[in-house]
Design goal:
This is Pseudaminic acid cytidylyltransferase. About 30% of the residues lie in helices and about 20% in strands. By secondary structure, the chain is α/β, with parallel strands linked by helices. The chain starts with a strand and ends with a helix. The mean pLDDT is about 95.
Length: about 230
């Protein structure tokens, strides 16, 4: 059996009520719930939240709310792994056991059922603890600049000062959309480790949504993808 956990606490600061704010016609969290359900990979899709309004909206879109997340796991400092592990352990105490568990962020409108299905297939077909979404930095990080204490510009890696961009090794970062893994590995293995496999997404399907500017950019990207038939 497979489980999908969507963490969604109510205390968003920079974009108030971000998880249920209207995004291109639906509450933001609805896109993640519907992608998880559309993948047909999961025996149960739950939302872990401390907020009754989020819980109500999540249920309207097909997610289960088997518990209300305790306040001790709903502050600004609790990491995703602890929230997912709590969900696994809570369901286990109810007699439910899952072999694979996915974490899908509530603010990941670009995720789709097909992407989740492909990621789950990669996990089951390879020796790996986790598969998670990554994307390539749009500019070589080896040529990054810093502003020093004198207000001057200097290269962080001056040895690459004369290197051509196309000659530098590509670098990637966590795309912040989903992590699928063996249930036993959540909390015992690090997600960002050599025991994990990357699921590479194109830049145009990745956007952090932490500020109002991020939100506007994400909506424009989302509508463009819908118009092109990619969503």
């Amino acid at each position: 059996m497979n489980l999908a956990v969507i963490p969604a606490r109510g205390g968003s600061k920079r974009i108030p009520r971000k998880n249920i704010k209207n995004f291109c016609g639906k509450p933001m969290i609805a896109w993640s719930i519907q992608a998880a359900l559309a993948s047909n990979c999961f025996d149960k899709v739950i939302v872990s939240t401390d907020d009754l309004e989020i819980a109500d909206i999540a249920e309207q879109y097909g997610a289960s709310i088997p518990f209300i997340r305790p306040a001790t796991l709903s502050d600004d400092y609790t990491g995703t792994t602890a929230v997912v592990r709590h969900a696994i352990d809570s369901l286990n105490s109810m007699g439910e056991d899952y072999a694979l568990t996915a974490c899908i962020y509530a603010t990941a409108p670009f995720v789709s059922g097909l992407l989740l299905k492909e990621a789950m297939s990669r996990l089951t077909n390879h020796v790996s603890d986790f598969v998670f979404s990554v994307t390539e930095f749009s500019y070589p990080i080896q040529r990054a600049l810093r502003i020093n204490s004198s207000g001057r510009v200097e290269m962080m890696n001056p040895e690459y000062g004369s290197s051509r961009s196309q000659d530098l090794e590509p670098a990637y970062h966590d795309a912040g959309q989903f992590y699928v893994g063996k249930t036993a590995s959540w909390g015992t293995k690090g997600v960002l480790s050599t025991d994990s496999l990357p699921f590479v997404l194109p830049n145009y399907r990745v956007q952090d949504i932490d500020t109002p500017d991020d939100w506007k950019r994400a909506e424009l990207m989302f509508r463009a993808l819908q118009a092109s038939g990619e969503l």
